[in-house]
């Protein structure tokens, strides 16, 4: 692998990779007028697209999408792109991703907490009277806990400090003080929290500086090193017998056989929050968003007599609170912003209740047929049948210069399966509404749609090629053709020239005839799994019988 232009950043990437820690990119702060943070469209309120702004020096300025501190990268042309760090909570970036992210010399580097039990302790100068006072407090803290003099340490771009430690137990809180009941002076960045590392150039124009890139010291809990919750309700020091909450267990759902698990009914975003991910870069906002959707989905299920199984909204909300280290009082303060009785699911709030019924249909056909109104069932069935009669786009989509509603729908479908953010999905819906009203589609939107569609179908072609290679190398011949079956995927090529890929619980996800793609339901995870397996296969030909496709 060729070295990137910024050798200092690449050295940090290698240091992280050697310790099985995710290395994620950080693009420099960008002009907020060119790249503003766009709020999700809310057509039910008459708001189709707007930008969050704030006052500064007598002017209204947009909030930036690229802050210089969030996961993102510059491509070869210097154009910034976001990286959704929740994809790397349970896996490390691939070599291909690293090559793509760190090719530009101005792209910095950061990492996530939680991997290998690591936590980043971040001291902010804003919590002290001055930078000098911060440095004096750090020196005193290190003298009181001399083990920390041997751990990983850096200076932040604003003059603060960052240390890395391995925690044996979950911290139980994020904001900390240096004494019980003391003032907030920093944060513990644990599971799912992103931190920027040296030698990245920060938004101030100053670099993050490495003090010592040593192995993180292992400690039992934060109280051992004099860090206490800065919550006003936790002013008392924890008793000696206090045991921090254990790490969040995996969420197990069991929809089907006559009932739906509430966690399967909510949006993808909320399911991610239920795994402990802070999708809004603000834990309180993430918790409130999850609470509203959970209460709303629960209300909708009760109103429509949809039987639920497993944890209901209250238990799932407390699960998120545990993941964020909230005590009961802080959880109550957050939930004071939520009225459970008036909450509605996001799809109902947008006026699209059929989206929920489609989800129920996918999870349990019996529940769908017994609870869904006949008119809605008819509408959903009609749409499914109509979709099946539409010509499937070829691997080289045509007529993109004159987009139709069919193409826009295909763009929306592809954006969903590629896990595009809600703001992108809602923007596509808004474009579709305008086109349906006879308004022309702006050139920039048309070009963006073309880029996304072509990118998707290029990846589909790659999977077709990879599936053929897998069959060639490890396929089993039979009178009907060639087959390879792994734990998740089954690939088969029938003598009639049809290549077919199936996935557990999803059925056929790809079918290719001699001259066209007959069926395609590939998702982002499928592209990632096939690429990973193909790379592993090319390196492990001598151990072929041991390979299994996920």
Description:
Strands 9, 10, 11, 12, 13, 15, 16 and 17 form an eight-stranded mixed beta sheet that branches. Strands 20-21-22-23-24-25 form a six-stranded antiparallel beta sheet, covered by helices on one side. The protein has a three-stranded antiparallel beta sheet with strand order 1-8-14, with helices on one face. It has three domains: 208 residues, no CATH class; 120 residues, no CATH class; 76 residues. By secondary structure, the protein is α+β, with helices and mostly antiparallel strands. Helix content is 36%, strand content 18%. The protein is built from 16 helices and 25 strands. The protein is globular and about 70 Å long.
What percentage of amino acids are in beta strands? 15-25%
The beta-strand count equals: 25
Low confidence ranges:
41-48, 232-247, 387-402, 541-548
Shape: globular
- CA radius of gyration: 26 Å
Helix content: 25-40%
Largest sheet: 8 strands, mixed
How many individual domains?
3
- Helix segment count? 16
Overall pLDDT score: 80
Determine the structural class based on helices, strands and strand pairing.
Answer: alpha+beta
Distance between the termini: 26 Å
Which features does this protein show?
single chain, alpha+beta, 3 domains, six-stranded antiparallel beta sheet, 16 helices, 25 strands, 36% helix, globular
């Amino acid at each position: 692998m060729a070295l990137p232009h910024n050798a200092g950043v690449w050295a940090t990437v290698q240091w992280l990779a050697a310790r099985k820690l995710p290395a994620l990119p950080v693009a420099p702060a960008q002009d907020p007028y060119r790249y503003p943070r766009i709020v999700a469209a809310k057509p039910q309120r008459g708001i189709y697209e707007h930008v969050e702004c704030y006052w500064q020096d007598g002017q209204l300025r947009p909030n930036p999408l690229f802050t210089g501190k969030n996961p993102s990268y510059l491509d070869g042309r210097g154009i910034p792109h976001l990286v959704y760090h929740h994809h790397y909570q349970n896996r490390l970036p691939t070599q291909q991703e690293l090559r793509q992210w760190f090719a530009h010399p101005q792209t910095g580097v950061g990492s996530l907490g939680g991997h290998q039990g690591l936590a980043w302790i971040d001291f902010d100068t804003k919590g002290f009277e001055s930078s000098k006072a911060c440095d004096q407090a750090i020196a005193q803290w290190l003298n009181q806990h001399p083990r920390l003099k041997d751990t990983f340490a850096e200076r932040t771009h604003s003059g603060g400090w960052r240390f890395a430690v391995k925690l044996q137990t979950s911290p139980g809180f994020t904001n900390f003080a240096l004494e019980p009941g003391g003032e907030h002076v920093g944060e513990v960045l644990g599971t799912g929290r992103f931190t920027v590392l040296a030698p990245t150039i920060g938004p101030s124009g100053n670099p993050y500086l490495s003090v010592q890139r040593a192995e993180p010291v292992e400690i039992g809990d934060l109280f051992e090193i004099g860090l206490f919750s800065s919550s006003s309700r936790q002013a008392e020091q924890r008793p000696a017998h206090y045991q921090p909450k254990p790490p969040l267990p995996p969420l197990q759902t069991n929809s089907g056989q006559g009932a739906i698990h509430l966690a399967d009914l909510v949006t993808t975003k909320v399911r991610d929050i239920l795994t402990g991910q802070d999708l809004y870069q603000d834990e309180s906002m993430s918790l409130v968003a999850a609470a509203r959707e959970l209460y709303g989905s629960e209300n909708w299920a009760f109103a429509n007599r949809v039987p639920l199984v497993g944890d209901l909204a209250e238990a799932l909300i407390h699960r998120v609170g545990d993941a964020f280290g909230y005590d009961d009082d802080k959880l109550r303060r957050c939930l004071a912003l939520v009225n459970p009785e008036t909450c509605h699911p996001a799809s109902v709030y947008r006026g699209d209740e059929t989206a929920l019924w489609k989800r129920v249909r996918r999870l349990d056909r019996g529940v769908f047929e017994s609870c869904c109104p006949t008119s809605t069932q008819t509408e959903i069935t009609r749409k499914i049948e109509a979709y099946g009669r539409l010509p499937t786009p070829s691997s080289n989509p045509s007529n993109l210069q004159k987009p139709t509603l069919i193409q826009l729908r295909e763009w929306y479908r592809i954006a969903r399966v590629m896990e595009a953010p809600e703001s992108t999905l809602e923007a596509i819906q808004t474009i579709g509404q305008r086109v349906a009203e006879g308004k022309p589609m702006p050139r920039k939107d048309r070009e963006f749609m073309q880029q996304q569609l072509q990118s998707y179908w290029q990846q589909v072609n790659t999977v077709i090629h990879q599936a053929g290679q897998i069959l060639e190398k490890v396929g089993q011949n039979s009178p009907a053709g060639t087959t390879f079956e792994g734990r998740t995927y089954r690939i088969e090529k029938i003598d009639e020239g049809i290549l077919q890929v199936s996935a557990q619980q999803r059925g056929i996800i790809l079918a290719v005839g001699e001259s066209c793609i007959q069926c395609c339901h590939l998702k982002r995870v499928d592209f990632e799994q096939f690429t990973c397996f193909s790379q592993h296969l090319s390196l492990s030909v001598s151990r072929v019988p041991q390979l299994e496709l996920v």
